[in-house]
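Lab notes, practical 5.
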Amino acid sequence: MSVEISARRRRDIIDALRRGVVPSIGLDALAVGLDRFETALDDDLDRVAGGGSVFKAIRGEYGAGKTFFTRWLAERAKRRGFATAEVQISELETPLHRMETVYRRLVEHLSTEQFAPSAFRPVLDGWMFALEEDVLAGGAVAEDDAPALERAVDELLERRLGDISRSTPGFASALRGYRSATAAGDHGTAEGIAAWLGGQPHVAARARRAAGVKGDLDHYGALSFLRGLLTVLRDSGHPGLLVVLDEVETLQRVRTDVRDKALNSLRQLVDEMHLDRFPGLLVLITGTPAFYDGPQGIQRLAPLAQRLATAFDPEPRWDNPRAVQLRLPGFTTDALVELGTRVREIYDSPAVDSRVDDAYLAALARAVTGALGGQVGVAPRVYLKKLVAEVFDRVDQFADWDPRRHHHLTLRTDELTDVERNAAASADDVELPL
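Output from the prediction step:
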């Protein structure tokens, strides 16, 4: 493993695996089998950073690693200065056909390499700081001439807001109000205006009056607000925004009218991105093959199906990583063992290195996969959780604990997801010796 990881990040990664969740950092060290996507995706990030826009559809069965893939790419994007946001689509909390709700969730989950969600206020403050720094860098105004500096910053702000004002006058007006309130030390008003800019409903009338805006954000204004956000991000030093729309496949289980409206909203977003109306935006959606190919998913809306159509060869290794759809083939047993060796290296324990060899990692991989009905794609989360919490931790703490003699694999229903429980229910009730 060539990725350098600090001691703190090692602990954070191992702790996440111990709890059975995808780590929030250090995913390059765990990215088995994703190297074939790197060049094409880095080209996409370059294109977005240069003012383009990219839409990608990630497909894979349950357990193929869709969540890991999107977070791995988000981590790569953050290292380039991008902002990122992961939005979970759901019928009740974040319906895809209500773009004002999607935008609000996007802002709530906005993060950068420096700031955890929500990074929206730090981004706004960074934008104002960048305005002042650009004025001072011009040399026409002295730093100690406060009135002249204020006027120059206001003039630059108006020039920067030119494009936003034409397409989204409310967003531009609120940005002016936010700067004025912040400069005056009126933090309550500034917070209210920031909430309105973030799509929050029911913002206090006082804050809206100070910003010169009315009402709440609606479906049609949300895409315009997204354009405004992209401008603020770029001016504050972030060359792009990566947005993950996760669990889009849940549209297959909603009412027909809701599903059709959601698919049409997705088609509208794809079309506007293809027209370069969102410079600096990279959108990923995730879904199962049934969502892309079945009658209750993308295929219900022919224009959307045409835009996302991708031909896949029977042999996955010939898949085109530049295509709009990317197929994740899922794990093999060999890949699972390789993942185990990487986690062993991250764990960084001499006792583990000496007493948990590759043969044991392979035996445990086969045992977990067998207990899950032979479905390797469902096994990674459980495998890593068992490996860290039940094997590595004990070997590291107890000198006389032998994993081959003392570890007995058990899968309790309360530690499994629904997909894992279904897989376990299909397994034969047999002894799986390690």
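Observations recorded by the TA: Strands lie at 53-59, 83-88, 241-246, 281-287, 325-327. The radius of gyration is 25 Å.
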